[in-house]
Amino acid sequence: MADLPALERAYRHALQFFDTLDERPVAVTASLESLRAALDKPLRDAGLPAEQVIDDLARDAEAGLLGSTTGRFFGWVIGGTLPASLAADWLASAWDQNGATYAVSPAASVVEEVAGRWLKDILHLPPEASFAFVTGCQMAHVTGLAAARHQLLADRNWDVTREGLAGAPRIRVLTSALRHESLNRAVSLLGIGLDNILHLPLDDAGGLSVDALERALASDPDAATIVCLQAGDLNTGRFDAFARICPLARGYGAWTHVDGAFGLWAAASDRYRDLLRGVEQADSWATDAHKWLNVPFDSGVAVVARPEAHRASLTTRAGYFVDAPESARDQIDWNPEWSRRSRGFAVYAALRELGRDGVAAMVENCCDYTRQLVDGIDAMDGAEKVAEPVINQGLVRFLATDGDHDTWTETVIERIREEGTAWFGGTDWNGMRVMRISVCNHRTTQSDVDRTLAVIRTIMG
Ligand SMILES: Cc1ncc(COP(=O)(O)O)c(C=O)c1O
């Protein structure tokens, strides 16, 4: 065996982390000052033994680690790590394969090819669609919208790759105010411009209004248009009406892009798949494996129904490349990065560990536990459900006797975090301060839900 004590130390620290996970407070216990005092050491001229570096790091970072990988973290949509996926990610680091092209790692290329096909299968997306394993949903938006920009401008005899955007036909983006901010960032990074986003009203069910969209499309029928839809809104988990919107947008030559950062995974479950009816008719989809598939960070996925546009918007070559066999996958044709982590290993391992049934069970458990948390809190005196969970997101708030519900809701959230058993976040919603409930970790159990409800009951008095 190779003598690499730093790896053994890291392995032991990781095991100890998992062994103590259930007892650790979910909230961070260190202050900014104490973390700086522990970690901000003088940069030395002489190096240190690798195992000492790892021991020091594990000790000094410990109190600054958020327990987001525990089963009682219900804050942001973060997700946990499945054992096989985490272990495969360790191997990806040990192997240190550059996932740029087939020639630099044939294994990484073939694993991505297979994992991409499995993902499309489990998400019920078109088998002929192209895909890219990117850092997260943010870069999946950039990838999908780069393909959209390319195609919409090519349709207007404009080659954006060569001619750039100066003087190009304007592209407009039609979406709702519920879109995630990462979509805006993709729009600005691609030079489409935030001023070209038109926020359309919602319908009574909380999705993008189909009538408003139809009016907007008809008002400028020849405009280069991207319609951005939501599969699982961040706060309520709601879905847009894909079966009506996708054909409508296509009728106007628009490109439809779907943000399904976590909601696209509902397709894995027979119980929830209908929420996504028609989504396969979109042109591009962005999702995360590091959220609901419980793959370690960073792992996002872009899927594009029009592979020619996807490839044309990103492909590149250099004189030092080595030709791959004819049918092999060079990831650089589909990804925005050059050198990159071989992200496919961890996704491949997660899908093998769970299988179709395991992904469906994880999705359904998370949805069940979300409902239990929302209903359990709603049943408490002085608390109310604000939004009915559709999948794994819910909203509640706490009612103050003096009528200042916003301040009291923030206070209760803070007290839950201080107590340490569970962790929730707050947000503004419909003019109210509310507590968000998000469940997307395979580690969450019935006992986690029961313990959390008991703590909230005690805090509420
Ligand atoms: C709905 C939605 N879209 C996009 C994103 C951005 O995803 P990522 O952080 O993986 O880039 C998030 C992140 O929380 C999200 O919830």
Determine the structural class based on helices, strands and strand pairing: alpha/beta
Cα-to-Cα separation, first versus last residue: 57 Å
Count of alpha/pi helices: 14
The CATH fourth-level homologous superfamily of the domain at 87-351: Type I PLP-dependent aspartate aminotransferase-like (Major domain)
Count of strand segments: 11
Notable traits:
461 residues; globular; 11 strands; 7-stranded mixed sheet; Aspartate Aminotransferase, domain 2; 14 helices; binds pyridoxal-5'-phosphate; 4-stranded antiparallel sheet; alpha/beta
Model description:
This protein has 461 residues and is of the alpha/beta class. The chain has a domain at 87-351: Aspartate Aminotransferase, domain 2 (3-Layer(aba) Sandwich). It is 41% helix and 13% strand. The protein has 14 helices and eleven strands. The chain has helices spanning 5-19, 32-39, 50-61, 83-95, 106-122, 137-154, 160-163, 181-189, 210-219, 242-251, 307-314, 344-378, 405-419, 446-460, and strands spanning 130-134, 171-176, 197-200, 224-230, 255-259, 284-288, 300-304, 383-387, 393-398, 425-429, 432-438. The strands form two sheets. The chain has a seven-stranded mixed β-sheet with strand order 1-7-6-5-4-2-3, with helices on both faces. A four-stranded antiparallel β-sheet has the order 8-9-11-10. The radius of gyration is 23 Å and the shape is globular. The structure holds pyridoxal-5'-phosphate. Pyridoxal-5'-phosphate is lined by residues 77, 136-138, 180, 182, 234, 259, 261, 288, 300.
